[in-house]
Design a protein that fits this description.
Layout (H helix, E strand, L loop, with lengths): L1 E7 L2 E6 L9 E10 L2 H9 L1 E2 L2 E2 L4 E2 L3 E9 L11 E4 L2 E2 L5 H4 L10 E2 L12 E5 L3 E3 L6 H20 L6 E5 L3 H12 L4 E5 L3 H11 L2 E3 L6 H8 L5 E6 L6 H8 E9 L12 H7 L2 E4 L7 H9 L9 E6 L3 H10 L6 E5 L1
Parallel strand pairs: 13-14, 13-16, 14-15, 16-17, 17-18, 19-20
Antiparallel strand pairs: 1-2, 1-6, 3-7, 3-11, 3-20, 4-5, 7-8, 8-12, 9-10
Helix pairs in contact: 3-4, 3-9, 4-5, 6-7
Length: about 350
Amino acid sequence: MRAARLYGIRDIRLDTVPVPQPGPGQVLLKIASVGICGSDVHYFLDGRIGTQVVSAPIILGHEFAAYVARCGPGVEGVQEGQLVAVEPGIPCGQCEPCREGHPNLCLHVRFCGSPPVDGVLAEYAVMPAANCFPLPQGMSPDEGAMLEPLGIALHTVDLAHLRVGQTVAVFGAGPIGILTAAVARLAGAAEIYVSEPLAERRRFVERYTGAVALDPTREDVVSTILRMTGGRGVDVAFEAAGVQETPQQAAAAARAGGRLVLAGIPAVDRLQLTASTVRHKGLTIKLVRRMKHTYPRAIRLVKAGMLDLKPLATHQFPLERTQEAFELVASYGDGVLRAMVHP
């Protein structure tokens, strides 16, 4: 089969590799759509995320939908030919976080496209059947792949314990930030402010969520948010940009006793917060580690028409143009939100 493998910084090559075979409880998947995530781009540009370093050629990709091509022995719950969305993390099920219901914190997780585990920018992959969620009739492969970032947004808002009528700020309007704002609106946020330097993304998030979009290159967004909230600040500030200055901006925009939720992954493995800001305000700080138990909820939201994921899948590429797709996302070119690769 064909697979797009990362060999080094900005070096993706199309290789021929063996088709994997499903074992007990596993399914062989014909990959239909893969979204290129910001974490994929970190590996593409930097060769690492924190302590996770690419040391050998690797297949990236973890946001995906696929058709069940073949079932291994003992598989239940899915059938050959079904279109499924796939949870990319394979937890051990035995460690303390797993036993406590937090598979996203598994100490021994195998995660698609995180070194040394291959991802799914290939024609086929094998995954546990338990990770596969059949999609309703009419839901497209791109929508199925976008359920993964929607799941991140659901988990992000869950961590905030947002209450109906509260106020929210989101720093960063990439797909995670946009979907976090959208989920916050569904959860009852009365006012949403989004800070985003790219004009196309500001326009998109305003249309998509009804948020007030602010340009951090032209104004002090913290001062603007404080002014618009009567000096109080927001109940919940979400950081989804992954740049060095935004965690502190989010902390400064939160009210005393408010909540700060950090979802962005910085290129530099360091988090910058001013101690006096978070201490004087007594902020509750949560960090997002992937997601947990979100696929059924995400599917229901899309099926019910409460969220439309199609507009976020802005660009489509065949597998042989994977390098081009990564370059587009890395450059923020052509108004891209999610570039989708169709093996």
